[in-house]
Amino acid sequence: MTNEDAPKKSTRIPVKTIAIEPAKSGVAEYKPRDQIYVRKVEGVFQRLRRKMNFVFLGLFAILPWLQYNGNQALLFDIGEQRFTIWGLTLWPQDLTLLAFLFIVAAYLLFFVTTFLGRVWCGYMCPQTVWTFIFIWFEEKIEGSANQRKKLDGRKMDFDKFWRKALKHFCWLFFSLLTALTFVGYFTPIDQLFIDFFTFSASLTAVGVVVFFAFCTYGNAGWMREVMCLHMCPYARFQSAMFDKDTLTVSYDKNRGENRGPRGRKQDPKALGLGDCIDCNLCVQVCPTGIDIRNGLQYECINCGACADACDGVMEKMKYDKGLIRYTTEHELEGKKVHFLRGKLVGYAFMMVLISAALLWTIISRMPVDLDIIRDRTALATENFDGEIENVYTLKILNKSQYDATYNLSVKGLSNVTWNGDQQVVVKAATVYTLPISLTVDPYDLKGFVNDIEFEVTLADDTSVTVSQPSKFFNKR
C-alpha cells in the first residue's frame, strides 16, 4: 500500500458538546453587591480622620450663619447673579476669579494626590464624611458590625422594627438638616429655616431641599461605596497622578508573607510564616470592602482604617507595627524614595503661580463697573434748538459692600451738554440704571461717527475710575 492509499489524518479539532442548563428564575444570580458591615476600629489615623471630619462638618454647618456688615457672609445668590464672600461681591463679569479659584483647587488636588494619594477621599470627601456619620448612627442604634449582620438576618420582630425605624428616622432627619444647610448657601439661610418649618416656603425651595435630602439619604445610607467605586470620576483618573514615590496605604508583602495563624509565643520563622496572621481585620474595617493585601487598588480611599486595625493586631502579637502603613512603592522595593520630584514641583509651581494671579486680580479689581446701552430706535435726533441729541442708558454696578456716591462725565466732545444726573448714589452690591442724553452743536462734530468715553469716578476717591467707550452719531 502506497502513501497515497493511506488514510489521511483529520485536521478538524474535536468538539465536545456540553449541555447547558436553563437559568433559574429569581434575582439571586444577579445580586449587585454584598452589603458591607464596616467594623469599628481605633487608631492614630481614625482619630485624625474623626477630628478632620468634625472640623469639616462644623465649618459646613456654621459658615452660612456668619454675618458680615449685617448680611450673610457667604451667599451664592444665583437668582440675583451675585456671589457674596465676606467683603467681596462677585458678579457675572467676575467669572475669571471663579475660574482662577477652581484652577488653584484643581492643582492643589493634583499636588496632594501625587504626594499622599487619595487622602482627600479618606479624610475630607463629603461622601466619606457623611457615610461614616451614618455608620455611627448604625452603631449606636443597631450595635457592632456582627450585631448588625445578625439583625439583618433575623425575621422582622418588634426589636428589629424599632431599631430600623429609628435608624432611618435619624438618617432622614440628618439628611434634611444637611439639605437645608446646603441650600442656605444659595438663599438667605435664616429665612429659609423659618419658612420651611412654618410651611410657608415656596414650592421651588421645598423641592430643592427635598431633592438634596433624598440624595444625601441615598448616597450615605444606601449607596455608600458604590459612589466611590462606580460613580466618582476621581477614582478613575487618580492613577495619572500616581508614581512609585506616592505615599499610599500599602501592605508589606516581603514582611507579611507567608500568611497564617499562630500562637503569640510561637516563632513565625520556625513555622515558615511572615508577620501576617491572616486575621482578615483589614478587610472587615475597610469602608469599600477590599483586601489591601492584594496590592494597590483604585477602590482604596487611603483612610488608613486597615493600617490602624493591623497595628492593633501587631501590638497584641508583640510584632513591629507598620505591616500595613503609608509608604511608597520604591520603599517596599528597597529603593530610594524621592519626595522632591519634577511632577510634584511642577504642580506646586503652577498652584503658586495661579494663586498669585488670583490675588493680584482681586487686589487690582475695581469696586465699580459701567455698562453703556445706546438707544437703538434712533441713532441721532435734532432737538428744537437745532442741536444733535443721542440717548444712552448707563448701568452703574457697585461691587462693594457699602453705599457709594459716583460722579459721571463724558470725554471726546467739546461743548457737550449732559441731560440727566451727573452724581448718583448706588446702594451696596446693586445696579443703578440711569437714562441720560447728550446734545452737541452740529458744527462741533467732526463727522458722522464720533468716539466718546463715559467715566464713573468715586466721589470720595478719584483714583477709583472706570471708563467705557461709546459712539456719538450725527444726523446725515
UniProtKB/TrEMBL annotation:
Please give the InterPro entries that the UniProt record associates with this protein.
Answer: 4Fe4S_Fe-S-bd (IPR017896), 4Fe4S_Fe_S_CS (IPR017900), Cyt_c_oxidase_cbb3_FixG (IPR014116), Electron_Trans/Redox (IPR051684), FixG_C (IPR032879), Ig-like_fold (IPR013783)
**Which GO terms fall under molecular function for this chain's record?**
4 iron, 4 sulfur cluster binding; metal ion binding
What Gene Ontology cellular-component terms does the record carry?
Answer: plasma membrane
Q: Which residues form the 4Fe-4S ferredoxin-type domain?
A: 267-295
Which Pfam families does the protein's record reference? Fer4_18 (PF13746), Fer4_5 (PF12801), FixG_C (PF11614)
What PROSITE patterns does the database record attribute to this sequence?
Answer: 4FE4S_FER_1, 4FE4S_FER_2
Q: Which UniProt keywords apply?
A: 4Fe-4S, Electron transport, Iron, Iron-sulfur, Membrane, Metal-binding, Transmembrane, Transmembrane helix, Transport
Residue ranges of the TM segments = 52-68, 95-116, 165-186, 192-217, 344-363
List the protein's name: Cytochrome c oxidase accessory protein FixG
